[in-house]
Amino acid sequence: MTTAQESKVDSPQQLLIKMLDPATRADPYPVYAEIAELTPVRLPAANLAVFSSYADCDQILRHPDSSNDRLTSTAAQREIAAGAVARPFGAPGFLFLDPPDHTRLRKLAQQAFSPRVVKALEPEIVALIDGLLTQLEPGVEFDVIADLAYPLPVAVICRLLGVPMSDEPQFSRASALLAQGLDPFVAVTGELPADMDERLEAGMWLRTYLRDLVETRRAQPQSDLISELIAAEEDGDQLSAEEIVATCNLLLIAGHETTVNLIANAVLAMLRELRHWRALSADPARAAAIVEETLRFDPPVQLTSRIAGADMTIGSVTVPKGDTMMLMLAAAQRDPSFYDRPDEFDPDRSPNRHLAFGLGPHFCLGAPLARLEACLALSALAAKFPDARPTGEPFYKPNVTLRGLASLPVIG
């Protein structure tokens, strides 16, 4: 191989494969920067277009022809024609549907995340945080994930949905496997992941679990979202049992994985620059700015996708109807053409627009709750442990899309 060949820049395909490599999980941002140099780009053989600038991602998220239903993609239609099951897990959650189904289902689910409901949850969230922090002692090592960032969102989403906390270990394992299913492994490699059968089994188990819980709530309603969705169905809303299961399945996975990541990523960013940690410990009101900058700087959802519902022109790329559009959100939020000092963690950044919760009709309905949980947890943790410092290297889960820490050892 010649020197020129050795120094050849990686192709977009090679960089996307590198992005999937677990070795990049601790710091994927250099790879994102390399991808950004080559995008926007269309990979015709994969019916895939990749975007990483803020302007392009913003336009796609707002575009009326952007579809969220995977079955509208050319790749899915090809798989179905070859005999693949269209929806192996059953009906999808509303996040993966287009209007009018998306509109109808989201309208019912959003009642659990209204400002009134979220505000009413604040005393309970504060009590949960106090209970978790009471178990931690200054000067003793603890794990931010296991001792706070994970149990808090899990308890809150279980309370909202009406899922018994005693069953948490079972659905936690299932949801972790399903979260990996959001990674663009098939789109990038054209191959199925090695643990596909395990994911299918986990998905089927979780659906069965929720289906049984729906039937239990139908017989014995309680003050939770499952009972409310059943009541809406029985009031003539045409919400089927499978749609209730799909909605709860979506909220259960999305409702804790992302908030765990948000809390943990914020703690890590501050502990790497202790002046931010000390500033928060002295002034709890800084928590909101810390949360917004974390959402930009190290977002819980690193990438997302849309399907071109019609021929679309995004920036310099023409995307044919049916192509999948991969949106590199984490790269877009470090776009130097949109942000000053994009690679610097700066909670005082103003204005601080980001795409972490999406835009348009699919804007994350759980955003107010995630912000509240993170603000309360971070301010309480920093107040109790003003001298906290990391004691070892953070360890990451294998996820690409919902990238997050598996452990973060700290001494208070």
Short key terms for the protein model shown above:
alpha+beta; Cytochrome p450; five-stranded mixed β-sheet; three-stranded antiparallel β-sheet; 52% helix; globular; disordered N terminus
* Gross CATH architecture: Orthogonal Bundle
* Low-confidence residue ranges: 1-7
Question: What's the structural domain tally?
Answer: 1
* SSE sequence, one letter per element: HHHEEHEHHHEHHHHHHHHHEEEEHHEEEE
Tell me the fraction of residues in β-strands, as a range: 5-15%
- Reported by name, the CATH topology is Cytochrome p450
> Tally the helices: what do you get?
18
CATH level 1 class label: Mainly Alpha
CATH superfamily: Cytochrome P450
Number of strands: 12
Trace the largest sheet across and list its strands: 1-2-8-5-3
Largest sheet: 5 strands, mixed
What is the CA-atom radius of gyration, in angstroms?
21 Å
Shape: globular
Distance between the termini: 53 Å
Average of pLDDT: 91
